[in-house]
Amino acid sequence: MTKKSIALIALIIGAMVIPFIIQNEYWLHILTLSFIWSIAVYGLNILAGYTGYLSLAHAGFFAIGAYALGLLTVKVGLNYWVALILACIITSGIGFLIGLIALRTREHFFAIYTLCVGYVIYLVIDKWDSLTGGVRGLIGIPAPSNIGPISFQSATSQYYLILFFLLATVLVMYRIVHSLTGRTFIAIRNSEELAQTIGISTMKNKLTVFVLSTFFAGLAGALYASFIRFIGPDIGYTAIIFDLLTYLLVGGIGTLAGPVVGTILIVSVSQSLQFLQDYRMLIFGPMLTLIIIFYPRGIVGMVSEWKMKWFNKKKKTPAEKWKSTYSDSKDVREDKVKEG
């Protein structure tokens, strides 16, 4: 068993014992919310981090998933698990239709177009009173229904349910990234023109990853609706997408661990700094700027870079180390001669 596998198992075991360590239900609630947002950020990461297309409509798809589950359970009266599946399918279907048009644009045109789409989704939710409830929102969304003897009414049981979906999301992302499909996405990110010349169907692959991204956004939105039990149009507002981007950039865009690391870190620090209210951005703003300047791949990318440097340094043979030391001392002597 590799060190990476041991570390991963240790992290999973640590996540499973957290409810026994944290007796404060408030922090358990915050951690569960972090897991939900992490699933949404993973959807954003597979598109922006591995394909190079930044979608600013992600908050809108998150809201579609939440409202789809809310309407199907509250107004239609469907079973929760059936409604959850349908909510993900509905979100992916709408994502497919929007992607057919959006993916004909590139770079900042794509970002601007998806930003407009996200805002339109917010307006539809906000103004369609007869369906969504408008500014009043939807109340009375049920918690996940029982699976045999297993109930999801307590905060601890919902924590484990969301943790299960997060681990499933990470596993799916890992399998995709380390497959031929994942390498195809990275090839499109590196050079779409070159990918086309070697026979990759870029439109087909971009549409696939866009729909996959919306699927995870819809899943996160549906889980959020059943966890909070009340939703309003604000969950689809454009400000939400910039929160998701912050989580992704701090954690590490284009990395597997980045979404969960950035989300848990920012949400936890944000809650700890509640007493500062609006002045919290005085901390987050400079921190985000410094990370983007010095470590564009975020905290996870920074740690990977340090590990690589340490590994390369450790891997050097005694002769290479002596040569490096001799070269450094020679440079110092030359500098002194020049100064003299």
TrEMBL record:
It is a multi-pass membrane protein. Keywords: Cell membrane, Membrane, Transmembrane, Transmembrane helix. Pfam families: BPD_transp_2. Residues 314-340 are annotated as: Disordered. It is found in: Cell membrane. The chain crosses the membrane at residues 5-22, 28-47, 54-74, 80-102, 109-125, 159-177, 207-232, 244-269, 281-300. Residues 317-340 have a biased composition (Basic and acidic residues). It comes from the Bacteria. This is Branched-chain amino acid ABC transporter permease. It comes from Halobacillus campisalis.
